[in-house]
Design brief:
It contains 19 helices and no strands. The protein has 411 residues and is mostly helical. The radius of gyration is 20 Å and the shape is globular.
């Protein structure tokens, strides 16, 4: 009886909710530079006379930079050898500086390099933040990481809000998002270590490969890849899509409408993350991820059929898509934290994210080509393939022995 009582006391770690609030707020701020250039892309097209290829390059550069940073971090086991708070502070400050450099870039060539550096730096923010918060929660970990990914979602949406409220002053958007990132890193550095800290690991570059090729983590990663195929392509190109919707509806000057609509569609995902975390803890993570990907893929297919509908109809359906497209995201990371080698949880999380963001670069680059070939309906149909295949991987994971270690045995 006494061991059970002791475990119960341990599960309710004092200060875990204040730690979650502090770190989540820090991530909201630190991730603000991610979509800063995308949010002001219409202005940059004019100022720098960007071609379509150059504009796509600025969007892809962040994704590819994140991949490079994540691969190097995983290979060096940084997330398991260095304090998460120190990594987050370092990454946030570098991202803030690189993002601020856009003010003096003068054109797409230097800007692409700065965007890649921003992405690489943010690879030191996101995975360590997930690991740091896992150390504060055993029960309710899915909810906690759902809040963390919700923070990432809000951080990604912030530039669209700043742009929507600030009009065409792209320099203000860049300056504000840089300042927010630096502030986020400083706040994260003040969050203490959780009581369920993972052991410090020795340097073993092969651990990233070992984690991804184990059956349970491998299937969770396949599900995550299906989720990521759709997610960032939708986030990156929704503003362009909704601009077209407004123009086709006879709106001569969409103005701030696309930026504010994009903020709403991306930002509503923060609520989806919260609900997804609660359902993942209570229903089981494989069940929740299957539900979320099924609904997300269905929304994409519905939009493919209604792309020419009235803006209000399109926006309502898009908000539903934005809610479910991210609701499952944290659960893939939570699964890894539960079934991976405890000494290399940070490496496993970083490796999973590296693969996912590698895939997003492909889907982001593919969307413009699909739109040229068959319009937005074709793009949405192709994006829907990812979550539909991801559900297959999660259903298989639910039937493996590893399911007994996920969500307290709920799978």
């Amino acid at each position: 009886m006494l061991p059970l009582m002791a475990l119960s006391l341990q599960e309710a770690a004092p200060g875990r909710w204040s730690a979650l609030a502090g770190l989540a707020f820090a991530v909201v701020l630190a991730m603000a530079p991610w979509f800063s250039a995308v949010a002001v892309l219409p202005q940059l097209r004019v100022v720098w006379r960007l071609t379509d290829a150059a504009a796509s390059g600025l969007t892809l550069a962040v994704q590819l930079g994140f991949v490079l940073g994540a691969v190097l971090s995983a290979a060096l086991n940084l997330a398991d050898r260095v304090s998460p708070q120190r990594l987050i502070l370092t990454g946030a400050l570098i991202a803030a500086g690189a993002n601020l450099g856009l003010l003096w870039a003068g054109g797409p060539t230097l800007a692409a390099g700065l965007r890649a550096l921003t992405g690489a730096a943010l690879a030191l923010v996101y995975p360590p933040a997930l690991k740091a918060m896992s150390a504060w929660f055993r029960t309710g970990r899915g909810t906690a990481l759902g809040v963390m990914v919700g923070a990432l979602t809000l951080g990604s949406a912030l530039p669209h809000l700043v742009n929507g409220l600030g009009g065409a002053n792209w320099r203000s958007v860049i300056f504000i998002t840089s300042a927010l990132a630096a502030l986020g890193g400083l706040i994260a550095s003040r969050v203490g270590d959780g009581p369920y800290r993972f052991p410090t690991a020795p340097f073993q570059p092969s651990q990233a490969w070992r984690a991804l090729t184990s059956r349970g983590v491998g299937l969770a990663t396949l599900g995550y890849l299906g989720h990521m195929w759709e997610l960032y392509a939708m986030w990156a190109w929704f503003s362009a899509f909704f601009t077209g919707v407004l123009v086709n509806a006879g709106v001569a000057d969409p103005g701030r409408g696309p930026a504010l609509a994009t903020f709403a569609v991306v930002g509503v995902g923060a609520l989806g993350c919260g609900l997804g975390g609660l359902l993942g803890d209570r229903w089981g993570r494989t069940r929740l991820t299957t539900l979320a990907m099924g609904l997300s893929g269905a929304c994409a297919l519905a939009l493919a059929g209604l792309a020419g509908a009235a803006p209000g109809v399109v926006l309502a359906l898009s908000l539903m898509w934005g809610f479910w497209i991210i609701a499952d995201s944290a659960q893939f990371s939570t699964i890894v934290s539960e079934i991976a080698d405890p000494a290399y949880v940070g490496t496993a999380l970083t490796a999973q994210l590296a693969l996912g963001f590698t895939l997003t670069a492909g889907s982001i680059a593919l969307v413009p080509a699909l739109v040229r070939a068959g319009g937005w309906p074709l793009a949405f149909v192709v994006l829907a393939v990812g979550p539909l295949l991801g559900t297959v991987a999660m259903r298989r994971l639910a039937r493996t022995p590893d399911a007994a270690r996920i969500a307290g045995g709920r799978g």
